[in-house]
Amino acid sequence: MIRNNIIIAFFILPFLFFVGCGGSSNTSSNSSSGSGQVTGSIRYEDKEYDQNGFTGNSSYKAVRYASVELVKVNTDGTESILASGSTDAAGQYSLNYSGDTSNLKLRVYAKTDENSGMQIKVNDISDNMFAAYKQVSGSILNIDIPASSPAAGAFNILDVYTSGYRFLQKLSGIYPGQLNVYWEVDNTLGTWFCTSFDPTWCPLGRGAYIFGGSSGGLGDTDHYDDDVLWHEFGHFTADEFSKDDSPGGPHFLSDNDLDLRLAWSEGWGGFFPTAIKAWLESEDPDLLSKHPQTKASFYVDTINDAALISIDIGNPGGLPYVYSSNEVAVAKVLWEINESFGTQPIWNILEDYLPGIVSPPVSMETFWDGWLQQRAPTPTELGQLESIFQERSIYYQEDIYEVDDTLSDAKTAALGAGKTHYSYKADGNTDNDVKAFTATAGTTYTIETYCLKNGADTYIMLLDSNGNILDFDDDRSDNAGINATYNNCPKSYFMSFASKMTFIPSTTDTYYVKVKTSPAAPSSAGRYGTYTLEISD
Amino acid sequence: MNMKYIIIFLISITILYSGNMVRAEGPAAKPASSVKIAIEPEGTVIPGETVQFTVTAYSQVDADDFRIWAELPSGIKFISGDLDWSGPVKKGEEYFISFTLLIPEKGTHVIKAGARIKLFEGTVFTDRAFFRIGKNIKKNVKGKNVLPGSFISDSKGIVEYELQ
Fold it and tell me: Which residues of A touch B91 (CB under 8 A)?
């Protein structure tokens, strides 16, 4: 008898206990008290894409580090949370609870659990937290969130940004602070990142606003466009760790006369998805959504499952993706540096150098300055870097006329022949380009700069042979080349910063033209621009 | 209310907005496609009558491989015009196709239009637009809005979706 009781105690009672404590939690309206454990995995359906858009293939991926709750739905409709926790890197969770075991549901939030160290949450535009739930019907509950669920997009956003946080931890050693994401499917206002509150654009304050696009409301949603999401994450990283002086505003990938600050900011945003994909490709390719044959350097934004924008940042072709005033060119330069030197030195400049720069504003130029200061590159490395920039027609190097900073070093100008100059001095000083020409008394000479590129803003001075200033000009008044081509130069915003003067000497003599970056250059321009100087009669 | 507090309040609001205001252009949006498209009818769309539509595309880049097209749903009768055009485009110039349709007496129909530029090494820019004839259909995709229970820590609402 005793033996039988022991058998009952060891084998049957635990089974009864298990049944009564959540192992068979039910959804009936009859209340029952007890305790137990619910375990399982949570996954969401991810969509594969390639350079043409979504491929039609999908796979389920773990919902990583997300907050989960075991919720008791009371008869009056209120809720009581019996247990809370999080999923792990594999999407697994385990919750122990005690209390009424009837009418339970498991809720997973599109929000990282605070214990993960990451602070990401995906809310709607009314600031409600996105979540999905499933009725609990046993001690093991696996949850799959299909792509057809209205909640699925929130979990892809969470996953993309979780990878972003881990990438930043690798680069910086720490996770960034809070990232609030505001997502709405049918909103076509656009997708952007706000650094602060704005009543029109950023009504919920700082965060990523994932609305999609305004392409006729035909489904330019972005919640599965990982590259678009990481582009905005790039802006978040710049705001969180670095310095971003972009004035914002509209921009096209093909614009190559953008404000240098905007081109840098967007170029960083264009580069960031390629860098993180390259990293994931080596670390954990299963986390990627791209087709394995699709290069990490492709940036794809979809509409109605097809590519709205598809461009290979690593191989975008030539025009118009050139100059430091083009965002694709900036991204391409960073991609090539990443290929040659890795992401860490790029990141070090962003995190350690750029935030300390008060003036000039952050642009491709200040990144270059940071590289020289932080790394003191060897001639070999400098040559590598110069060729990467040069491939995008960005010339942070001395032109062939150097040294020509003073009257005594001036080179003689051939009349009627425009020559390209770079406003750059390898020693870090301000560049002056001085040209000499012999002028005949009574003849009219035109001295002008044109074909301004890479953010150039010129200022010209005319000097006599004793160095006395006879005339000067900052911005030419005819605005040639802004809306039309001029001397075979493409039209460009920077042509409004070109200079021009006419000169009729009273004495035949040698005269000098000195060109430097305008002391009144606006923040949209730079210091290392490229320009053509021509003296003609 | 005490005038002092009113002034402090107004100053606070001024500082709040002036300090944090993003410029009028707004934040930089995601990269825009270098082609933009619009579809518009020439006049009022009346069921049972013909109407001409124009699809206009605007390119931000020079390209040799450009296409503009319109897709008609079943039930719409095509009368005349061009539904498709391909050719080179110049930056800053507009390109369009026009076509005339007989509008059905009943039903909801959506005319879709697209433009696509192909550049170097697989670079593609597209844009889409549509014109809806008939009633708008409101999709009901929102989940159940759940008020926060007393145990929800940050007192925010939840928009949650049930999974089967």
Answer: 254, 320
